[in-house]
Write a structure and sequence with these properties.
The protein has a two-stranded antiparallel ribbon with strand order 1-2. Helices cover 55% and strands 4% of the residues. It folds into 3 domains: 7-151, no CATH class; 168-196 and 254-327, no CATH class; 202-248, no CATH class. It is elongated, with a radius of gyration of 31 Å. Helix 1 packs across helix 3, helix 3 (40-67) runs antiparallel to helix 7 (116-133) and helix 14 packs antiparallel against helix 15 (296-303). It has 328 residues and is mainly alpha-helical.
Amino acid sequence: MPPHVPFSELAASDLTVGAVYEALLGRLGAATARKLIKARQDSRALERAVERAWEATVARHRSVLSRYDVNERFLEHEGAEEIARILLAGRGPDARVLARSCARSLGGNPAGRTSDPLVVPFQEFLDALTEQLSTHGPFRTRLHQVTSTRSGRVTQSDELEMLEWLCGWLEYLKTAGIGTTQHLQLPLSEVFVQPRALGEQHGGKKWSTRLEEQHALLDERLRIGDVDHDEYEARLDRLGLVERDAETSIVEPVPVTQLIRDSDRVVLLGDPGTGKTTLLRYLALRHAQALLVDDEASIRRELGIHLTGLGCGCGASHGRQPVPAVAG
């Protein structure tokens, strides 16, 4: 990428239209570009539309754009793919996506609200660009065609906004009921203590102990005639020895996230106040944070969760999506 030039060193007329034009054509794809650009007047119309739309945006929002160092480099590189959606079928361009892309290019926090001031300028730029494109016949026809492909379904931007809200809602530990009248801001990810639990050792019908289960099975074998009374008594004696040995063995609890990582589905059981809800809030927070930054490696390492978005392209999808836990 060419070196970043501060906005303050660029006037609106300094927009490198040719570079932005080439970047947009590349994002449109060869087939679409050939349909739209058939003569020099078509390419000039696209260049002029971008230039005029950007000049109008800079004139109205120079201070905001300057504060974020937004210039033609952003339009040419990070922003080109989203801007090109104006002329592509399917989901249309979204000013919120452009704003987040700009914040990320400057090292902004994707889970924060730092990109909010850019939404209005980028929306006005997209509106102005659409208006300018509609003055040219082939582009006007294309705009009508793609409009019919737009839908009201949830978009990637909607999902990102929901994930940001979710991270904000889960960010702090709820302190109600812990014996204080003060409003405490305790970041959940910083104060969360990994709970430990005992994993269930055997599936199927449950007895309070393994020995109870063995007794019940032995009684059933006697009932159906699989063992006689002498063998039944001998097996009971052996079970007594096993019971004495079992009393000396201790099953150590393990971190709950280890149980979750090693299981497809987990039912979480515990007395009131043992942290079931807090654990679920932590799992949801970690999952949402990983989806926001597409960090599948860490969430798979910690919880064994394969990132899956809400169906509109946020996060990777790699097979199963385990149910992390169910509070009981």
